[in-house]
Specification:
This protein has about 210 residues and is an alpha/beta fold. The chain is built from 7 helices and 7 strands. The protein has a single domain, classed as Rossmann fold. Strands 2-3-4-1-5-7-6 form a 7-stranded mixed beta sheet, sandwiched between helices. β2 and β3 form a beta hairpin. The protein is globular, with a radius of gyration of 16 Å. The two termini are about 25 Å apart.
Amino acid sequence: MTETDRSDPGAEPWVVAGLGNPGPTYAGHRHNVGYLVADELVHRMGASFKAHKASRSEVAEGRLAPVPGSGRPGPRVVVLRPRSYMNEVGGPVKALLSFYKVGPERLVAVHDELDIAFDTMRVKLGGGDNGHNGLRSIRGSLGTGDFYRVRVGIGRPPGRQDPADFVLSNYSSAERKVLPFQVDRAADAVEALVTLGLAETQQRFNS
């Protein structure tokens, strides 16, 4: 993909899927950090979520800030928060890609990652699901894992706590103080990925 494709005002939109579970019961869980990053991106675009019945999602559409010196508007981005549970998000993601007529190569999934320490992240293209139910569902629905991922670290559970219980639990009080900065940085990573490409984004954020 060329940089022209990224900055062309008429180019197909990017779809950014913030993964999480719907409803107030899950809102503060580590598994829902993708929702928080989606909220931040939509705030930056000056947009708002609206129900999108065709994909069973909340969707917001807008443009990111332009690349400095490009002289062109920023890329079109569609941000979605699936309103299905994590193990079923593949259906809404596939439906939205079909609605906007874009392929998996224009999809960015933002999700929690157990194998990355809290307050760090990694950006990658493709790969397996590493036990993440949301990624497994997307891979199953799309028939491919060749989409971008912004992997927001939550770290491994302490002691013998079951990882499934850990991801479905609230951040600690100490983590909650840092979380807004982590969410902000993850949103920065999404913007860099869409506007600048994978290599430069990895150089900046895969620390």
